[in-house]
Amino acid sequence: MSDLSLPRRALLGATGAALARPALAAGYPDRAIRLVVPFPPGGTVDVTARPIAAAVSDLLGQPIVIDNQPGAGGNVGTQRVARAAADGYTLLFTAPNHTINPGLMPNAGFDAQKDFAPISLCAQIPEILVCHKDAPFRTFQEFVAYARAHPRELTYSSAGIGSHPHVTMELLLHRLGLDVLHVPYRGAAPAFTDLVAGRVQLKLDSYATSAAQIAAGAIRVLAIASAQRSPAAPDVPTIAEMGLPGFEGILWMGYLAPAGTPTDAVNRVARAVRDAVRSPSVAGVLSQQGVEAVGSTPEEFAVRIAKEIPQWRDVIRDANIRPE
After folding, report:
1. What is the pTM assigned to this prediction?
2. Helix ranges (DSSP H) in 177-262
3. What are the residue boundaries of the structural domains of the chain, listed by start?
4. Phi/psi at 95 (nearest 5 deg)?
5. What is the pLDDT of residues 105-153, one digit of tens each?
6. What's the CATH number for 128-224?
7. CATH number, span 5-125+250-318
8. Residue of 212, 201, 210, 163 lying closest to 185 (CA atoms)
9. Cβ-contact 294, 121 below 8 angstroms
10. Which of 83, 263, 277, 308 has a beta carbon 3.0–4.6 Å from 99's, enabling a disulfide?
């Protein structure tokens, strides 16, 4: 793991601020909680948010109303939560856009760290590197060798400029010293369709969306970008095993609150999230969607955010990524 001195300093500062916050009323929550999802209904983040929110609602004894507020790569809904009352009744369910956008769109009108209180990293989906069945390589090592010998010949697709698969792939290519052309699409579905059709050779994807085409032999899995091998595919090596220690490409999803939200409210929701996602019923639903249950502490989630913001800022600068 990289140097965590910055995240630790951030945590110490957050702890000091928390001491000055007023205690929350013992009855929290005593009314409905609004959960802003800064993406359209039906996407991966929204579909993951719903079963978790239902279980958290049961544990807290109050309704959780999901409010989809898409726009600007997640910035529209995120900004509204940053400006909401810090009373525990407006929360954000977000994803890596929260740590990518500060480097991509630094004038979004909020600070991704200072304006939010992390609650819990709820769940995650490791990315897998897949290739078309007719690609001139069958393993990760063969891909690296081919790309090195044929710069700018291979192409990879993504859901769009600045999307998580885009910046993760650029991080991978940078660390490997490879030159592979990016073909951005307006959404994950057309990016995947063109991979299956052979119009591009590579894509970072998830097992949930790739499984059928993998089984059909239309695409092949080269590696997985998780810390450990997946129980669902124990024969697929991790990218870290292939010579890039510590490399991860994780589509995570988690709860945040506006900065200044009382610590006891944050902790109560964090406990409910942990118990919800680790329950057999919710974990089972998530697993069927290819999602891994996590349920972290606020402090653990803060470390993740503090680590990723400078990482993605560097990738965006080095790859000269500009928003559309």
Report:
1. 0.87
2. 188-197, 207-216
3. 5-125+250-318, 128-224
4. -145, -170
5. 999 999 999 999 999 999 999 999 999 999 999 999 999 999 999 999 9
6. 3.40.190.10
7. 3.40.190.150
8. 163
9. yes
10. 308
